[in-house]
Amino acid sequence: MTSTSKPETGWGFIGASTIAREHMVQAINAQPGHRVVAVASSNEQRARDFAAHAGIANAYADVDRLLADPAVDVVYISTTNELHAPQAMAAAAAGKHVLCEKPLALSVGDALAMVSACQRAGVLLATNHHLRNAASHRAMRDAVRSGAIGQVQFARVFHAVHLPEHLQAWRINKPEAGGGVELDITVHDIDTLRFILAAEPVEAIGLGRQGGMAQKGLTDGVMAVVRFDNGTLVQLHDAFTVKHAGTGLELHGDAGSLIGRNVMTQQPVGDVTLVDANGSRTLDLRHQDLYVTGVRAFCKALAGQGEPAATGLDGVKSLSAALAVSQACATGAVVHIPNITGEGQ
Description:
Blueprint (H helix, E strand, L loop, with lengths): L8 E6 L3 H12 L4 E7 L3 H11 L3 E3 L2 H5 L6 E4 L6 H10 L3 E4 L7 H14 L3 E3 L7 H11 L6 E9 L9 H4 L7 H17 L3 E9 L11 E8 L4 E7 L8 E6 L2 E6 L9 E6 L2 E4 L7 H13 L9 H20 L3 E2 L9
Parallel strand pairs: 1-2, 1-4, 2-3, 4-5, 5-6, 7-10
Antiparallel strand pairs: 7-11, 8-9, 8-15, 9-10, 11-12, 12-13, 13-14
Helix pairs in contact: 1-9, 4-5, 5-10, 6-8, 8-10
């Protein structure tokens, strides 16, 4: 797939978000022949301030104006979750390629509609699941594939963190915007495990709580168990309210274990230890910026060289499982996770 015949591929940001400012401007501008050329926000002053800070040529208070800009070939969407689907489909209709933050949408139906719209328009859709790009998780995936720990039986994810005040807002008080810990954190855990295990989740059970941060029925802490189709049982601990626990991901097989510490993070940090009958040893990790790595894969996919790190279909599948965890927490029932098939981007 070729994005454009122009000498430079222009990116437009839909949403002047923290992640866009702190990670994505640099990640995109680091790619040869790619540059952020426009930003749109519902708050015009916010768009102007963002553009001035990042050296972006054009700032818009209207998404339609950004999509009409001929300098924009690709859009990166990082608005609140309920806006992802309509904005991505509008971008597809305008012939723009789409890199969208997780979750793709608030429902599986809307997420599948995004995938279909982009396929019909002949544009690339990818999900910005950054944790797939961590050296730690890629090393764990490679170790699993090589048989280093034998048949994987269990996994544990510790992703209980403290959501900083400047990121709270809609995440803790707006159900209609897709707030709550499941669509913010659990969806990342599921996607990371899908990537490492090369397996799909099939059922979930869980309990959620409000630990003093979330409001209006939203959860700010979850403990859940998810069964994957390769037999692996996964325990998830996700939260917005835990200040000092650190993060981690463990895989336990019949021949050994992989212990990852400080690996569920946006930063290129952490370590992984392999423990087996021969003792323990730390895996060699070559850390790189997770967002630069992900954008690089997206840009290569635009040029017809492979797939993005997480396709649109990956985003649908990981969303489906996160919604199942949310439903399980709300009902106390075991929730079946449907098998979603289709052509990836």
